[in-house]
Design a protein that fits this description.
The structure holds 2 protein chains of 2 kinds. Chain A is of the alpha/beta class. Chain A is 56% helix and 8% strand. Chain A has helices at 18-28, 43-52, 71-88, 94-104, 121-135, 147-158, 160-176, 190-198, 221-234, 242-252, 257-270, 276-288, 297-301, 303-307, 311-322, 329-339, 345-357, 374-396; strands at 33-36, 58-64, 139-145, 180-184, 212-215, 361-363, 369-371. Chain A has a 5-stranded parallel sheet, sandwiched between helices. Chain A starts with 17 loop residues before the first helix and ends with a helix. Chain B is of the alpha/beta class. Chain B is 57% helix and 10% strand. Chain B is built from 19 helices and 8 strands. Chain B has helices at 17-22, 28-43, 60-74, 95-105, 119-137, 149-171, 185-188, 208-221, 225-232, 237-247, 251-258, 267-287, 291-300, 309-316, 320-332, 358-373, 375-378, 384-395, 400-423; strands at residues 49-53, 80-84, 141-146, 174-180, 199-202, 307-308, 336-341, 344-349. In chain B, the strands form 2 sheets. A 5-stranded parallel sheet of chain B has the order 2-3-4-1-5, with helices on both faces. In chain B, a hairpin with a 2-residue loop joins strand 7 and strand 8 (344-349). In chain B, helix 2 (28-43) crosses helix 3 and helix 4 runs parallel beside helix 5 (119-137). The longest helix of chain B is centred in the C-terminal third of the chain and has 24 residues, at 400-423. Chain B is globular and about 75 Å long. Classes of the chains: A alpha/beta, B alpha/beta. At the A-B interface, strand 2 and helix 11 of A face helix 2, helix 5, helix 6 and helix 15 of B.
Chain lengths: 397, 424
């Protein structure tokens, strides 16, 4: 296997996801779900593998929705995929065709829905799903990647109400059409987009309360080691101890497949041998580099938009956790009281939940909190905690 | 004579592949790797997205053309279609333009739609053009070659970038190979669609030996065997080594230089030509710098030795967070060098001749040349050249860059001399 950071990975080369994929199919046998994870953890690889290798009884469609800006475009995009699926079975979307004829007085030409049908986008979408239900003998899963971006785009071009309507119609389809499942994923958490859509004093809106929610974790250590070993071999990297090197790399990058690819690609570019030392050295250099080639500062800078006025509390908690392996909730409450002047423990508990949702921290088996990803923790410690302490030491001197 | 017999400096892809190979002095290992990845993209569902990065004249387009030439030989036309987008990216402002440019590049005469003035019409046209691209490909893998991809992405804006990314993700039929002068936030910022999407291959300047090979190859290509022989002779080694300290290792500048040189017998004349080339390229590069970058350059060029990010930030009254990416750009563009010492990175000007008086630069060149003829003589304080440099520096005493240029040049000469000694 070759290093391919950021590129398209052959579904057959997506390793270590069998258990996760099995549990996703299990959920899909009863309901739709939202897949969450930090960017570059491998969500898209997982759902593309599922699309390429559906289990018996299921069919799958993958769509990247980030380029869609209107509701009609969304329906058009679903229709294009649907038509391809139906034509393979020598079927047609009859209900949709009839509906378009009724609305516009014309036939559908070249898989293009007429613009005059835009106000009827809900009926069109429902008709498409009903056609699918009628003609397919499998449960069809729509893997909708980058759903949050589509909602943001629709909100920007057609307003918050329009974006909310999309979610509501999809919920209604899930309720009424039993042969359709939906998987929402995205680089940004849907909870942030929902919060934006609820803005302006709208009533509580829970258009996904019928969906399960699953987090895509990084690879298990053994799988990350397997991946690293395959790339070391595929790239013909000189390695006296490939297993130890792969193990060191898996540990350094928390099993995140993207970074496994990236670091080994870095070794190839540098012309270095693959050893535990070169792996550690390369990761350390990237984390400490003031020009921040992995843009880990993003985890810091986005806190202002994520937490707004409560950013101080978030930073106090993350600063405290960056310097340690793990910290109990009660300890973190004391930290918040001392550093962010937060008296109410419930505020701290709520913030910890938000930080968990946003993949900054995660509670371990004992309930203690720790950073989700050590690369982020190490960046945080070096550039925030050590830098501040270093500066104050310089000041004292 | 055919157009492809000419060595196209501005657009190497127009040059015949065999001439490209003969005049290539860049990173052959990188070419092999990129070819290998594209072939893998054709033969398997893996798809590789790469960019070749580096400042103007470093050889990005030549490398790209080399890769494409090799790929065309390695893969049958029935499996691969190459769409080389126009050199000028200003016409690629949207998804529709992109797909139409791909169709043009693939030689598709059928225009999908004239497009419309209204947003909705353009969207429909873009969807149709996208479908037409897939139709024309007919199951082949598309190799999309995009010069100045940074500018294309900028022209696209976030919405267009998301559309392009969705196309790549959904269709999985395309390998991308682009060039970028700099890694803009579109590549380096996690919040942007293409963050972490491309493998970045940064080109390095070539060494003095490679520039000699380059000059000889160009002389041969234009039929000047006398100059080709002269370039390789030991008699002119000191001139060419010293010139390397003026022009650096940017192949584009050397190609520019060799076009105006017939013989090497008059070193001063060559040097003046080199200074002219140097100044033209430097001015063009400076014009591409932002106001902040110019401020940083101005301050750094007046410093004795290397500086840390925090020093630059304080001196220029810019936050460290802002200075870091600017320094990264200046490093990538070849303006400054970055040296890591422990946890800190130190930056300094790379170019010893930056913004110097020409007569003074000429003296520095003569001094450089002397290093490669007789280093001891060059380092003798009482030598005539040392006296002339001291006098010239005194003449420009009000401008610290003149006083600083000599130590900077000497450090580089010492490094080159040590390297040569080690090789011997």
């Amino acid at each position: 296997m070759r290093a391919n950071p950021g590129g398209e990975i052959d579904p057959a080369d997506v390793l270590g996801r069998d258990q996760l994929i099995a549990s996703i199919w299990r959920v899909l046998s009863r309901q739709s779900l939202e897949l969450t994870a930090e960017r570059r953890i491998g969500k898209s690889s997982v759902i593309k593998k599922m699309t390429a290798e559906p289990v018996p009884g299921f069919g799958a469609v993958y769509q990247d929705l980030e380029g869609i800006r209107t509701r009609l475009q969304f329906v058009q995009s679903v229709y294009r995929q649907t038509e391809a699926l139906l034509s393979r079975r020598k079927k047609t979307a009859d209900r949709l065709s009839r509906l378009v004829r009724t609305i516009s007085g014309t036939e559908i030409r070249g898989l293009k829905l007429p613009k005059v049908a835009a106000p009827d986008w809900k009926r069109l979408l429902v008709a498409i799903c009903e056609d699918l239900q009628e003609h397919l003998d499998v449960v069809l899963v729509f893997f909708w990647d980058e759903m949050p971006f589509m909602l943001q785009n629709i909100r920007a071009s057609e307003g918050s109400t329009a974006a909310r309507e999309v979610l509501d119609v999809l919920r209604s389809i899930r309720q009424s059409i039993t042969g359709i499942r939906m998987v929402y994923t995205g680089s940004i958490g849907l909870h942030h987009v929902l919060a934006e859509l609820r803005g302006g004093g709208e009533v509580s809106h829970a258009p996904m309360n019928d969906m399960d929610r699953l987090d895509v974790p990084p690879l298990e250590r053994a799988d990350a080691i397997d991946l690293a070993q395959r790339i070391i071999a595929g790239e013909s990297l000189p390695a006296d101890a490939p297993v130890e090197t792969a193990d060191a790399l898996a540990k350094e990058v928390n099993g995140i497949a993207y970074y496994v690819h990236l670091v080994l690609d870095g070794l190839v570019k540098e012309g270095w041998d693959a050893t535990p030392d070169t792996v550690r050295s390369l990761v350390r250099r990237k984390i400490h580099d003031p020009t921040d080639p992995w843009n880990l500062a993003h985890f810091f800078s986005r806190t202002s938009s994520y937490y707004g006025k409560e950013r101080g509390l978030a930073l106090a908690l993350l600063d405290a956790l960056a310097g340690t392996d793990a910290m109990s909730r009660s300890h973190l409450i004391r930290v918040a009281q001392a550093m962010a002047d937060v008296r109410d423990p419930h505020e701290v508990i709520a913030m910890l939940a938000r930080l968990t949702n946003d993949h900054y921290v995660a509670p371990d088996a004992e309930g203690d909190y720790r950073f989700c990803y050590t690369v982020v923790q190490r960046w945080w410690r070096h550039h925030r905690v050590d830098a501040v302490e270093g500066d104050s030491r310089e000041g004292e001197a | 004579m055919k157009a492809s017999d000419h060595i196209w400096q501005s657009s190497p892809r127009r040059t015949a592949p065999e001439i490209l190979v003969k005049t290539f002095v860049g990173d052959v290992t990188l070419v092999d790797r990129l070819v290998d990845q594209i072939v893998q993209s054709v033969q398997t569902p893996n798809k590789h997205y790469n960019v070749i990065a580096g400042g103007s004249g470093i050889g990005k387009s030549h490398t790209l053309a080399m890769v494409v030439g090799r790929v065309r030989k390695a893969v049958a036309d029935t499996d691969l279609a190459v769409a080389w987008l126009p050199d000028d990216p200003s016409g690629l402002g949207s998804e529709l333009h992109l797909f139409e440019a791909i169709l043009d590049a693939l030689g598709d005469g059928e225009r999908v739609s004239p497009g419309g003035a209204r947003e909705g019409d353009r969207e429909v046209a873009a969807t149709a053009a996208r479908s037409r691209v897939l139709e024309v490909l007919g199951g082949r893998t598309l190799l999309l070659c995009v010069e100045e991809l940074d500018q294309v992405l900028e022209a696209f804006g976030e919405a267009g970038q998301r559309g392009l990314r969705a196309f790549l993700q959904e269709e999985r039929c395309c390998a991308v190979l682009g060039t970028v002068a700099e890694l803009t936030p579109d590549f380096t910022d996690q919040s942007r669609p293409f963050f972490g999407f491309f493998g970045v291959h940064r080109l390095e300047e070539v060494d003095a030996k490679a520039t000699i090979r380059l000059l000889a190859a160009h002389a041969r290509a234009r039929g000047d065997s006398e100059l080709a022989a002269a370039v390789k002779s030991a008699d002119h080694r000191s001139v060419l080594s010293a010139l390397h300290h003026v022009l650096g290792g940017l192949p584009g500048r050397w190609v520019d230089l060799v076009r105006g040189v017939d013989d090497l017998s008059e070193p001063d004349r060559i040097l003046l030509r080199a200074l002219d080339v140097h100044e033209r390229w430097t001015r063009a590069a400076f014009e591409r710098c932002s106001t902040q970058q110019r401020l940083i350059l101005h301050w750094l060029s007046g410093q004795r030795g290397a500086m840390q990010v925090k020093h630059v930030a304080r001196a220029c009254s810019i936050s460290e967070q802002t200075v870091s990416p600017q320094l990264r750009y200046l490093r990538d563009a070849g303006w400054v060098s970055a040296t890591r010492v422990g946890r800190e990175t130190w930056y300094e000007m790379r170019d010893p001749l930056h913004a110097l008086d020409c007569d003074y630069a000429l003296e520095l060149f003569r001094y450089s040349r002397l290093w490669f003829i007789d280093r001891d003589a060059a380092l003798t304080e009482a030598s005539p050249i040392a006296a002339r440099i001291a006098a010239a520096a005194e003449h420009h005493a009000e401008d610290p860059r003149h006083a600083l240029a000599l130590p900077l040049l000497e450090r580089r000469l010492m490094a080159a001399w040590t390297r040569q000694a080690l090789e011997r």
